[in-house]
Amino acid sequence: MQNTAASTPTHCPYCALQCGMNLAPAEGGGVQVLERADFPVNRGALCGKGRTAPAVLDRTARLTEPLVRGADGELTPASWEEALDRVAGALLRTRAEHGADAVGVFGGGGLTNEKAYTLGKFARVALGTSQIDYNGRFCMSSAAAAGTKAFGVDRGLPFPLEDVPRTGCVILVGSNPAETMPPSLRYFTELRDNGGTLIVIDPRRTRTAEQADLHLAPRPGTDLALALGLLHLVVAEGRTDEEYIAERTTGWEEARAAAMAHWPEYVERITGVPVPQLREAVRMFCEPEAAMVLTARGPEQQSKGTDTVGAWINLCLATGRPGRPYSGYGCLTGQGNGQGGREHGQKADQLPGYRKLDDPEARRHVAGVWGVDPDSLPGPGRSAYELLDALGTDIRTLLLMGSNPVVSAPRAAHVEERIRSLDFLAVADVVLSETAALADVVLPVTQWAEETGTTTNLEGRVLLRRQALTPPAGVRGDLYVMRELAARLGVEKGFSDSPEEVFEELRRASAGGLADYSGITYRRLAQENGVFWPAPERIDGGRGDGDGGLGDGRGSGDGGDGGSAPHPGTPRLFLDRFAHPDGRARFVPVVHRASAEEPDEEYPLLLTTGRVVSQYQSGAQTRRVAELNAAAPGPFVELHPRLAKRLGVVEGDRLAVVSRRGRAVAPARVTGAIRPDTVFMPFHWYGEGRVNTLTNPALDPVSRMPEFKTCAVRVERA
Ligand SMILES: Nc1nc2c(c(=O)[nH]1)N[C@H]1C(S)=C(S)[C@@H](COP(=O)(O)OP(=O)(O)OC[C@H]3O[C@@H](n4cnc5c(=O)[nH]c(N)nc54)[C@H](O)[C@@H]3O)O[C@H]1N2
Ligand SMILES: Nc1nc2c(c(=O)[nH]1)N[C@H]1C(S)=C(S)[C@@H](COP(=O)(O)OP(=O)(O)OC[C@H]3O[C@@H](n4cnc5c(=O)[nH]c(N)nc54)[C@H](O)[C@@H]3O)O[C@H]1N2
Ligand code: SF4
Ligand SMILES: [Mo]
């Protein structure tokens, strides 16, 4: 590894906080992480994953040359030419024999904007397949669907994190930032220092819940009833904001009627949360002038996630929160580019600029930028789990970039079996993940510190990640991979491996769309600490303008001089209007329904899943870092002392957790911090402790999000 600069300001490779860091040459080669205090989101603070991220750059941890599967069935090193020829040959063969839709593409929310954009274009233009989706479907898709319905646009947080300490009350629903975004905890501490209150809703008393003024611990999968019960009380106690409802919303009567069916006592029975706690939450949320609801994966990863988030948004609308200062609803997006990754077209139904693939005007615009006939663009394809489920049958060859589904997909043993049944699997990755190990060709790609690109953090802030060192000789970028494959498929033009060139095209493709990046340039990103979208090219360039656009127009620009000034970006959405044509937000009438699987005699307990601070996602990267492995060496089953006693198990006993889909084994961790009717397992590991062997792929009907957060299990000694 060679260093290209003395010290380079850049961002962490992992989660959606996208903490700023400086990379400087380390003694003995490589880079070390230094504090970067000028980036406002983390102000220099990092979690252990960010601090140790350079370990994955080391040759011992990562792939350094392409691998191809030989006649003996083993993966062996090969040249780039040979590897790319093999992949292109398989893509062409499958397309010729079974049609373009027999080729699948699976992307990731960790890919930069440039890569996500190029992957969507590669699928539609170079391959001509409709079969593309990505792991973001497993992440925040229910919140995105609900946000789009209610507000007309989905930007995870419609305000910067710096607004959190200025509000009066935050309800954190199924979110554990103490483990999943540690530097963000400061915002909640400051909130409380300023006299505000924090309510945490989680079946477990997490490190985050320990900081809360009020912790509600519902049964997994009952957040919909909980939100409706709170709304019932808001109405019953006369705490609605009638003026706001009349001026800024539609659909209240139906939503109100639906909520009124959810009496507090009925909600207590469903959720297990006592009525006095419900009343206390309503009081804390309604009394201050400003308040927020923030959701994360807890309420979203459910087969009713879209309705559940809709119910929380209804609560916010009924109390006049969204579009008011330091108030409203937000989703805490998860992956490094979880926000940007859902805007530029790697999603099954989507074109760049957060446009819809089935919208004729959107097709015309994007086809124009791509220089192709709009009619040549395929239609919408399958969602992520449905795509994985079709491998080996309808889909014969898969190109995978930025995900490790053998560990992270629901019903993972079935998904693994589907992947093994493919005619051909090509994986581009930085490490030999468990999924890459099944591939016919593995393409080793460059990592965050070795390449330049943009990401969009959980606030909708577009950021520049800068290259800080030269990659090892044997690796190439994802953009190079796609350019070379396109060329071998006969598409010589329109695929660049220069990130800035790709970004320039992305700007044009996004222009006029909901997620408009046309006013953002690399030059600007290098000077400013990120730019919030929408940022049209000019202040009069459409949405986000001073007179009735989406945003407040407050920002760093000089604003509104006759339509030629650069747009400052939009830190805060909805202050003047929502993004629906009539400018109003929509209530959605929702009622409670059960989870896809409820406990019964054979499977009497609920399993829920999530994360620990020292591992990231499928663990493909962080399980290669010694310090992180020492802190979080393996999976475990969290269970309540009462349940442990009933089962006759003590701390450390090996437990088998069994669901209708399979069996996973891990040691017991006995803790009073979890409900007695629920067990919890983190999902970062493969092998016998893989929790996704157990999880239920029941999908939300709107977002197609699988139900990672609840299924029925039994627990026994292994
Ligand atoms: N250390 C670490 N940090 C990460 C990641 C990681 O893998 N590791 N991944 C990143 C990504 S992609 C994401 S999406 C975010 C996720 O960030 P979070 O959403 O904070 O993470 P989770 O642990 O999945 O779930 C949050 C909480 O939901 C609770 N929960 C479980 N079931 C329910 C339920 O039915 N209702 C409610 N209300 N709560 C429930 C769990 O107990 C858990 O404490 O984290 C990001 N940051
Ligand atoms: N049970 C359960 N399962 C879950 C969840 C849960 O809460 N519970 N959460 C779900 C959620 S929210 C998510 S986001 C998913 C995440 O699960 P995955 O999609 O498996 O995510 P990662 O483990 O981050 O996998 C990313 C892979 O891409 C590689 N990679 C990183 N950067 C790049 C790059 O720039 N280019 C290429 N080509 N490869 C790269 C990494 O090395 C890694 O192998 O898991 C889901 N699965
Ligand atoms: S909180 Fe997220 S972005 Fe920040 S250092 Fe940790 S993993 Fe990286
Ligand atoms: Mo995620």
UniProtKB/TrEMBL annotation:
| Pfam families xrefs | Molybdop_Fe4S4, Molybdopterin, Molydop_binding
Q: Which residues form the 4Fe-4S Mo/W bis-MGD-type domain?
A: 5-61
Q: Which SMART domains match?
A: Molybdop_Fe4S4 (SM00926)
Which Gene3D superfamilies has this protein been placed in?
A: 2.40.40.20, 3.40.50.740, ADC-like domains, Dimethylsulfoxide Reductase, domain 2
PROSITE patterns per UniProt? 4FE4S_MOW_BIS_MGD
Is ATP-binding set as a keyword in this record? no
> Where are stretches of biased composition, namely Basic and acidic residues?
537-546
Key words, A-Z: 4Fe-4S, Iron, Iron-sulfur, Metal-binding
Locate the compositionally biased regions of type Gly residues.
Answer: 547-563
Name-wise, this protein is Molybdopterin oxidoreductase family protein
